[in-house]
Structures are given as C-alpha cells and as structure tokens.
Amino acid sequence: MGRYALHRLLMAVPVLLGTTFIIYLAVYALPGDPIQALAGPNRMLSPSVEQALRERFHLDDPLIVRYGLYLQGLLTGDLGTSFSGRPVSEVIGGSWPVTFQLGVTAWLFMAVLGVLLGTVAGLRRGKAADAVVLGGTTVIMGVPFFVVAYVAQIVVGVDLGWLPVSGTEAGWPLAYILPGLVLALYSLPQVARLTRTSILDNLGADHVDTATAKGLTRRVIVLRHILRNSLIPVVSLLGVSLGYLLSGTVLIEGIFNLPGLGYQIFTAIPQHDGPVVVGVGTLLVLVFLLVNLLVDLLYGILDPRIRLGLG
Asked: Pick from 171, 180, 296: which is nearest to 233 by CA?
C-alpha cells in the first residue's frame, strides 16, 4: 500500500507544476497594468514609486523567471504578496473557512442524496421511484444552477423565510444549507445516475447469486455484496466532484454574498491583483490533488486489485 501511495503522490507533482504554470500564465497574460490599476484613475503614484513596485513584484522580469520565483516561494509556504501589500496567505486565511464549510456542506448533500437516490432507483428499476429519479436528475442537469440559486433565494428565503439568503451571520450550518444544496446540484445527478448504473451491474453478479443461494437476508446482500462493490466507481466521482464544487463556489459565493475564496478571486480579477488569483488558484489545485490522492488510496482499499496492479 505504501508503494502504491508513493506512486500516486509522484504522479501528482507534474500535474501541480503544469496546472500552476497555466494559472500563472493565464493571469499575467491578461491585458492591463496591475500597477496602474493600483494607482487608480488619477495615477496618484509617482514614477519612482511605480518603478519600485515593479522591481518588488518582478514585473519587468520574463514570465518564466517570475514563475520560478513563485515556485521557490511556494516551496517555503510563501504564496506571495498582493499588490495592496497584504500577504496572500493572510487573504486566504481569512476566507478559506467560508469556502471549506460551503464545499463540505454541498459535498455532503451531493454524496448522501446522490447515493440514496441512485440506490433506490437501482433497486427499483422500472418502477415509479426509478422514473422519478431519472426524470428529476434530467431536469436538474438541464437548468443552470445559478438560475436555481436565484429561484431558491426568492422562494425558500424571501417568500417562505425558512433559510438565510445572504451572508454568514447565521453561522454553520444554517447559513450554508441553501447555497450548499444549490451547489450540490452541480454534480448530484451524475452521482445518482452512476450509483444506479453500478447497482444494476452488481445485481446480476455471481457473488450476489451465491449470497442469495446461501440464504442471506436481502438487507445483508444489499449492504455487504451490492452496495459496497457499487460504491467503488462512485467514490472516485465523489472525490473529483469535490474539486469541481470548490471551483463552483466562485459564482455561488457571489450570489449568496459569502466572503470566501471565490469572492476573493471575484474581486481580485478586476483589480489585476495577480498574486491573489494565482495564490487562491494554487490552493484549490493542491486541495484537488490531495482529494484525488485520498480517493485513489480509498479506491485501493475497496478493491485490492487496483493497488496490486491487477485491475
């Protein structure tokens, strides 16, 4: 297992380098001068101050040199300094709890509801429950989730007054239920459908027929022999979906006025504050890779053939 984990960890290194370079290139290739954006329309900075800022942030150096300096700082835990003079780590430190709580809330909704609905649909194939799940997930996939967000705010928050529609004053979990549920709809249909398909594949497996012939109860067969094996591909999807959920928080945090990492990116882009955008983007990539590493390890635990190279 240790060799398998090391192999997966080494595979993540080139992915980290490639994705962070793409983020860095995309951010600093954008038109506009960050120093001029910092100075404002009235250009309150003197030429000497502007030049000092360019030297401090290495803006006159080639892009590859600046990226190398960024990686050098990243190895020591330094994510750089925003053009406003505030350390990027400080910006992230004040915002990541909001994004984390939102992402975890959405992931829990997606995992629990997706697996539950998919299991019910798979075990009741061709019946009313199956039709409702398939029809409902089709409708959800056809409607943009930001539209659902605005409708949910109006109906659930304003008209019914059940849940907060803005800010984090109510705390967790109350303030995160509505945005978390809306964000969960981003991947919930895929989880439900994959669970259903996997359940159907395992219903006719030989080991299930053997368990039935032994006289095991329906509950034991479903939990031990059907659901456990069916969750192997679902676990992989749930892990990948967590990364997508974190990226989707940019829009949701804007709609629900949540001061998280997505909100920081949203406000930093118009200000050409590249260090903040790159720093937050790098953190999201690291979280995505960590989650995928954990999923790979869990995948190997659920199916030993994978870590032994047999599957």
From this structure: 296
Express each pLDDT in 267-299 by its tens digit.
888 777 888 888 888 888 888 788 777 777 776
Structural domains present in the chain: 2-75 (no CATH), 94-307 (1.10.3720.10)
d(CA 234, CA 196): 10
Give 163-177 pLDDT, tens digit per residue. 888 888 888 888 899
Task: Determine which helix (DSSP H) or strand (DSSP E) holds 57, and give its type and residue range.
Answer: none
Q: Confidence class of residue 214 from pLDDT cuts 50, 70 and 90? A: low
pLDDT at 146 over 60: yes
Q: Is 142 helix (H, G, I), strand (E, B) or coil?
A: helix
CA gap 262, 45 in Å, rounded: 29
Which ranges in 127-227 belong to alpha helices (H)?
Answer: 128-142, 145-152, 174-184, 188-203, 206-213, 218-220
By the 8 A CB rule, do 292 and 239 touch?
A: yes
What letter would DSSP give residue 310? Answer: -
The answer to whether 246 and 103 are in contact (CB under 8 A) is yes
Q: Which residues neighbour 30 within 8 Å (Cβ) at sequence distance 6 or greater?
A: 272
- CA distance linking residue 19 with residue 74, whole number of Å: 14
Cα gap 302→294, rounded to integer Å: 12
